[in-house]
C-alpha cells in the first residue's frame, strides 16, 4: 500500500465498495426493526457546492456509518429544496437574451425553473457522492416532485381542518427586491443600516381632548413624535402614548409649544438644538387618552385622529409619543385593531407609493426607502411639521436574506398559519429531544415563543400553489376541506403545473355542489413559503418508511445553526399542527444537531472580494502537492469542533494532511507485519506483559471512541486516535516490537504473539476510522490478507470491533505507568550519552536498575525481567537497549555511565545507563554477540530454523 493513494481508477472502485455497495449491503443484511433514520435537511438546488455543504453532508455520513458499524439499519434518503425566488430569478437571468421584450407567463417561468433545479441536482448529487457520502440516492426526494407536493398539500389541508389557516389584510415583511412577502425566518438583520430619522409635530385639538380639561385652553400645542421611517407618515392613523408615564408641554423658540414625555425633554432639545422650557408639567399619560389631533399633511377639515394607550411605548427612546401607521407596523396594527382602525398601506409590490399616498403631493411611483423618504421630508419641512432631521441614524434593520436588500413592513392580504395556538405544545414537545450543542434547545424554543403567526403565502410562480379559489364578483376566498380535496384530486392526476395552465377548464376546479350555486371562481396565484415546502418533508419521509409508533419519524436532524429559525422550526410547527393520537410523537425528530459556518484561518467570513474563499476541490486536489484526497476533506470535517464556526486554510490543512500521512504510514506498517501471518492467534495468557498492555490500551481507546461517536464529538474522536497513534503505538508498542518482528524466528511464540496483537490493533483501527476516512480503510482492506478480512468485502460488514473484556487490565496499566517512568530515565541517560559520548543509537547502551532485594520496586521489575516464556526479558525490548539487568549496587563501568535516582513504589531506585557489554550483531544490531562481526545466538537460531524449513538442513 503506497504512502499516498494513487490517482487512478482504483479510487472509483474503492468509493463504490465503501459507499453504494455498503449502503445496499446494510439495507439487505441489517435488521429493519433496529432502524436509524437520518433525515436530510434539503440543500437548495441553486448552484455549486461549497465547504458548508461538505461540512454538513460529511457530518451526516460519519453519523450514518457509525450507526451501520453499530448494527443499525440506516435510512438516509437525500433530498433537495427546489422552489423559491432564487431559483426562479436565476432561471430567468440565464435566459435574459432570449427573453428580450417578451413577457413570460407563470407556466413558462416554472418550466425554466424546473429545468435549472434538475440540472443543479444532478451536478450536486454527483459531487456529494464523490465525497463518499452514502445513501439511498436512487430514491432521493425533491420538493418539486408530484408525490412530494401532494403530501405537502395534504398537510396544508389538515392544518386548514384544524382551523390553523386564515387570510387577513395586515402588515407583513415585504421585500421590494424580491416582490414578495417574507416570513421572519427569511430575514437577516443589518446592525449598521442607516436611516433618516425625524422629529415630526402633529397639531392637537384641545377642544377634542376632554382628558386635558382646561390645561390647554387657548394654547396651540403639537405632539412631538420621533420616527426612523418618515415614509410611513402618509399612512398615520393614530399616536400612541403610555398611560403610566408623565408628559409635559414645553415652549421652544422655533417650533412653538410641544407635547413630550417629561423624561425625554432633554433628548428633544438635543434633536432640535434648543433648550425647551417646561410650561405645563405633570400631565399623566392616562389623561391624554382620547385626545385627538390633525394629520399635519391633511387639510384643516380632515377627520381628526386619536391618541391611544400602548404598552409598547416607553420613555427610553424618542419622545414618548409614537406615530402609528397600522399598515406598516405590527405593534401599530394590533393597537389600532383594538380600536377598529383599519390598516392603510399606500405602497405597491415594488415598494413605491401609490396614488393614495397624500394625493396632490406627487408621491406616486416613488420608492419609499429612497426618493419617497426624501420627498416626504421635503413636504414635512415645507409644512413646518418637521422639527428636526437626523440624516444618518444607524440602527438594526431587517434585510431580505437572499437579495441582501432592506425590506419594508406593508399591509397586504396574505395567508397565515396560527402559531399562537400550538406554540405551547411545540415547546413542551421539545423536552424529549436531545440537542447538540445543548444551547440549541433554548435557541429553537426562543424562536418558537417569539412567533404568533406564520405568513405562508408568496407572490411568485415557482412553488406549490395555495389551493384557494376567489369569487370573481366579491374576491372572497373559497378554502374549505371539500374544495382543497377536490383541487388535490386534479393536481394528483395533472401535476401542479396544471394550476397555472389552461388545460383544465376554470369551472372544473370548483367542487360540483358549489358550482351549482352559480357563483364563478378563479384560481389564486399565490404559492407557499419554501419553509412550508421543506418543513413538511417529514410527510414524504413517513410515506417512505411508515409511521414509527410512539417514536419520532427521524432519529436525527442535522443542519446549520441558522435552521433553528428555518427548517427545524417549520418542521416542528407543521408536525405538531397535524399530529393526532396520544401515542404519536409530536416532534418529527428525536435529536437535533447543529453546526456552524465556514471561516478562513483568521476567523473571517469567506468572500470573493477578500480572496479568501476555498472550495471542496481545493482540499481534495490542492495545487502542486501530492496530498489531499477525499479522505483529507473528510478528516478536516471530523477534526473541526462543528458546534461553532469552523476555520479552514493552508496551515490547518497541512496539519490535517500530516495526520492523514501518519495514519496511512501506521496502517501500512501494520499490514506489512501481517503479510506472513497465518491467522492463528496466540492465547491471551501466553502473551508478554507488553502485548497485554497494548491490548489494554486498545480496549480503553476503543470504548472511549465508541462513546465519543455516540455523543457526536467527532473532533474528540480524532484527538484520541492521533494521541493513540503517536504515543501508544508509534512511540511505544510498534517501536519496541520491531526488533522481535524483524529478528525473531518467524514461528516463535513472541513474534506470533506480536502479530496477534497487531491484528487486533488493525481491526480496531479500521473500525474507529471507517466512519471518517472510509476510502482509506477500504484501501487497507483491499491489501489485507484473508485472515484479516475474514471474507467480508469491507471493514463495516464486520461491524464495530469489540475488544475482549479480559484485556481491560487496570493493574497492568498502573504497573506500566511505573515502567514508563523508568523508561523516561533510561532515555534521558541515552540522550546524555549522545551528547557526551557520541552514542548514535539506543542499542549501544544497556541499563542496570539498582533496587534493594525483596523491595516492592524489585518485585515489580522482576515480573518484567523474566516472564512466562523462559529466557524472555521484556525490559530490553521496552527500553530499546541491548540489555537490562537488576542489581543492588551501582556497577563500575569500564567506559562510561549515567545514573539517575528516583522513587519507585516508595523504594529507592537508581537507573544506570552504560555502554552495552556485548558486540554488535550484524543482523539485528543488538549488542549481544560474543565476538565482533558474528551474529548473536538469537539470530543464529532464526537462521537455523529458516534453513531447516526451506532447505531441510543447514547449508554446507
From TrEMBL:
Keywords, comma-separated and alphabetical: Aminoacyl-tRNA synthetase, ATP-binding, Ligase, Nucleotide-binding, Protein biosynthesis
Keyword hit for Transmembrane: no
Family annotation (Gene3D superfamilies): 1.10.730.20, HUPs, Ile-tRNA synthetase CP2 domain-like, Valyl/Leucyl/Isoleucyl-tRNA synthetase, editing domain
Any one GO CC term of the record: mitochondrion
Single Gene Ontology BP annotation: mitochondrial translation
PROSITE patterns on file: AA_TRNA_LIGASE_I (PS00178)
Any Pfam family: Anticodon_1
Catalytic activity: tRNA(Ile) + L-isoleucine + ATP = L-isoleucyl-tRNA(Ile) + AMP + diphosphate
Coiled coil regions, renumbered to chain: none
Domain (Aminoacyl-tRNA synthetase class Ia) ranges: 21-648
Lineage top rank: taxon: Eukaryota
Methionyl/Valyl/Leucyl/Isoleucyl-tRNA synthetase anticodon-binding domain location: 691-848
One function term, GO molecular function aspect: aminoacyl-tRNA deacylase activity
Subcellular location: Mitochondrion
Family: Belongs to the class-I aminoacyl-tRNA synthetase family.
Protein name (record): Isoleucine--tRNA ligase, mitochondrial
Classification of source organism: Eukaryota, Fungi, Dikarya, Ascomycota, Pezizomycotina
Amino acid at each position: 500500500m503506497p504512502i499516498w493513494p494513487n490517482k487512478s481508477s482504483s479510487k472509483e472502485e474503492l468509493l463504490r465498495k465503501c459507499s453504494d455497495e455498503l449502503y445496499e449491503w446494510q439495507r439487505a443484511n441489517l435488521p429493519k426493526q433496529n432502524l436509524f433514520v437520518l433525515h436530510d435537511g434539503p440543500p437548495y438546488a441553486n448552484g455549486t457546492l461549497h465547504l458548508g455543504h461538505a461540512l454538513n453532508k460529511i457530518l451526516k455520513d460519519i453519523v450514518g456509518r457509525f450507526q451501520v458499524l453499530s448494527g443499525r439499519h440506516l435510512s438516509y434518503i437525500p433530498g433537495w429544496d427546489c422552489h423559491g425566488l432564487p431559483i426562479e430569478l436565476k432561471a430567468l437571468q440565464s435566459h435574459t437574451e432570449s427573453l428580450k421584450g417578451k413577457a413570460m407567463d407563470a407556466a413558462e417561468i416554472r418550466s425554466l425553473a424546473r429545468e435549472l433545479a434538475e440540472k443543479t441536482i444532478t451536478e450536486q448529487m454527483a459531487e456529494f457522492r464523490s465525497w463518499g457520502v452514502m445513501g439511498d440516492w436512487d430514491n432521493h426526494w425533491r420538493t418539486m416532485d408530484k408525490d412530494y407536493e401532494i403530501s405537502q398539500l395534504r398537510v396544508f389541508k389538515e392544518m386548514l381542518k384544524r382551523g390553523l389557516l386564515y387570510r387577513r389584510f395586515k402588515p407583513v415583511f415585504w421585500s421590494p427586491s424580491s416582490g414578495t412577502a417574507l416570513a421572519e425566518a427569511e430575514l437577516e438583520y443589518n446592525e449598521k443600516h442607516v436611516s433618516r430619522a425625524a422629529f415630526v409635530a402633529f397639531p392637537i385639538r384641545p377642544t377634542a381632548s376632554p382628558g386635558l380639561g382646561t390645561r390647554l385652553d387657548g394654547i396651540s400645542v403639537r405632539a412631538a413624535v420621533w420616527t426612523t421611517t418618515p415614509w410611513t407618515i402618509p399612512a398615520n392613523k393614530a399616536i400612541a402614548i403610555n398611560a403610566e408615564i408623565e408628559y409635559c408641554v414645553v415652549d421652544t423658540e422655533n417650533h412653538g409649544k410641544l407635547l413630550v414625555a417629561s423624561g425625554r425633554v432633554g433628548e428633544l432639545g438635543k434633536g432640535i438644538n434648543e433648550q425647551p422650557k417646561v410650561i405645563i408639567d405633570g400631565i399623566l399619560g392616562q389623561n391624554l387618552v382620547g385626545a385627538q389631533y390633525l394629520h399635519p399633511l391633511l387639510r384643516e377639515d380632515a377627520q381628526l385622529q386619536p391618541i391611544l394607550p400602548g404598552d409598547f411605548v416607553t420613555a427610553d427612546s424618542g419622545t414618548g409619543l409614537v406615530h402609528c401607521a397600522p399598515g406598516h407596523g405590527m405593534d401599530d396594527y394590533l393597537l389600532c385593531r383594538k380600536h377598529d382602525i383599519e390598516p392603510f398601506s399606500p405602497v405597491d409590490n415594488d415598494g413605491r407609493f401609490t396614488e393614495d399616498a397624500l394625493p396632490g403631493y406627487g408621491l406616486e411611483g416613488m420608492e419609499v426607502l429612497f426618493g419617497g423618504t426624501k420627498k416626504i421630508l421635503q413636504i414635512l419641512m415645507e409644512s413646518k411639521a418637521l422639527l428636526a432631521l437626523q440624516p444618518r441614524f444607524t440602527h438594526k434593520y431587517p434585510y431580505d436574506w437572499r437579495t441582501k436588500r432592506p425590506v419594508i413592513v406593508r399591509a397586504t392580504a396574505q395567508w397565515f398559519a396560527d402559531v399562537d395556538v400550538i406554540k405551547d405544545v411545540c415547546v413542551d414537545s421539545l423536552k424529549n429531544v436531545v440537542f447538540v450543542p445543548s444551547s440549541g434547545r433554548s435557541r429553537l424554543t426562543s424562536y418558537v415563543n417569539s412567533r404568533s403567526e406564520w405568513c405562508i403565502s408568496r407572490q411568485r410562480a415557482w412553488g406549490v400553489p395555495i389551493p384557494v379559489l376567489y369569487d370573481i364578483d366579491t374576491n372572497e376566498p373559497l378554502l374549505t376541506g371539500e374544495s382543497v380535496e377536490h383541487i388535490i384530486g386534479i393536481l394528483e392526476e395533472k401535476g401542479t403545473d396544471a394550476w397555472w395552465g389552461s388545460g383544465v377548464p376554470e369551472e372544473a376546479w370548483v367542487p360540483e355542489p358549489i358550482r351549482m350555486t352559480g357563483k364563478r371562481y378563479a384560481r389564486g396565484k399565490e404559492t407557499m413559503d419554501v419553509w412550508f415546502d421543506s418543513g413538511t418533508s417529514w410527510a414524504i419521509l413517513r410515506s417512505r418508511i411508515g409511521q414509527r409508533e410512539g417514536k419520532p419519524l427521524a432519529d436525527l436532524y442535522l443542519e446549520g445553526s441558522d435552521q433553528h429559525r428555518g427548517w427545524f422550526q417549520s418542521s416542528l410547527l407543521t408536525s405538531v399542527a397535524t399530529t393526532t393520537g396520544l401515542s404519536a410523537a409530536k416532534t418529527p425528530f428525536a435529536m437535533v444537531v447543529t453546526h456552524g459556518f465556514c471561516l478562513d484561518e483568521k476567523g473571517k467570513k469567506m468572500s470573493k472580494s477578500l480572496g479568501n474563499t476555498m472550495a471542496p476541490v481545493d482540499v481534495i486536489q490542492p495545487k502542486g502537492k501530492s496530498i489531499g484526497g477525499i479522505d483529507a476533506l473528510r478528516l478536516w470535517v471530523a477534526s473541526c469542533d462543528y458546534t461553532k464556526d469552523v476555520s479552514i486554510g493552508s496551515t490547518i490543512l497541512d496539519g490535517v494532511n500530516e495526520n492523514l500521512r501518519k495514519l496511512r504510514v501506521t496502517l501500512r506498517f501494520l499490514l506489512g507485519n501481517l503479510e506472513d501471518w497465518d491467522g492463528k492467534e496466540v492465547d491471551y495468557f501466553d502473551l508478554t506483559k507488553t502485548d497485554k498492555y497494548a491490548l489494554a490500551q486498545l480496549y480503553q481507546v476503543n470504548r472511549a471512541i465508541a462513546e465519543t461517536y455516540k455523543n457526536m464529538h467527532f473532533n474528540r474522536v480524532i484527538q484520541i486516535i492521533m494521541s493513540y497513534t503517536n504515543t501508544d503505538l508509534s512511540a511505544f508498542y510498534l517501536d519496541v516490537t520491531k526488533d522481535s518482528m524483524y529478528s525473531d524466528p518467524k514461528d516463535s511464540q513472541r513474534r506470533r504473539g506480536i502479530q496477534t496483537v497487531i491484528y487486533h490493533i488493525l481491526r480496531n483501527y479500521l473500525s474507529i476510522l471507517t466512519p471518517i476516512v472510509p476510502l482509506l480503510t477500504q484501501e487497507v482492506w483491499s491489501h489485507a490478507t484473508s485472515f484479516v478480512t475474514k471474507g467480508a468485502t469491507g471493514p463495516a460488514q464486520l461491524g464495530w470491533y469489540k475488544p475482549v473484556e479480559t484485556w481491560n487490565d487496570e493493574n497492568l496499566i498502573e504497573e506500566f505507568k511505573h515502567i514508563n517512568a523508568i523508561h523516561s530515565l533510561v532515555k534521558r541517560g541515552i540522550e546524555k550519552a549522545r551528547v557526551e559520548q557520541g552514542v548514535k543509537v539506543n542499542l549501544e547502551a544497556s541499563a542496570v536498575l539498582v533496587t534493594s532485594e525483596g523491595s516492592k520496586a524489585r518485585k515489580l521489575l522482576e515480573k518484567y525481567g523474566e516472564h512466562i516464556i523462559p529466557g524472555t526479558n521484556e525490559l530490553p525490548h521496552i527500553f530499546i537497549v541491548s540489555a537490562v539487568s537488576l542489581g543492588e549496587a551501582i556497577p563500575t563501568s569500564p567506559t562510561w555511565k549515567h545514573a539517575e535516582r528516583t522513587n519507585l513504589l516508595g523504594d529507592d531506585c537508581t537507573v544506570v545507563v552504560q555502554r552495552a557489554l556485548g558486540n554488535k550483531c550484524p543482523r539485528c544490531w543488538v549488542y549481544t554477540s560474543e565476538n565482533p562481526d558474528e551474529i548473536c545466538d538469537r539470530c543464529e537460531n532464526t537462521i537455523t530454523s529458516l534453513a531447516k524449513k526451506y532447505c531441510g538442513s543447514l547449508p554446507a
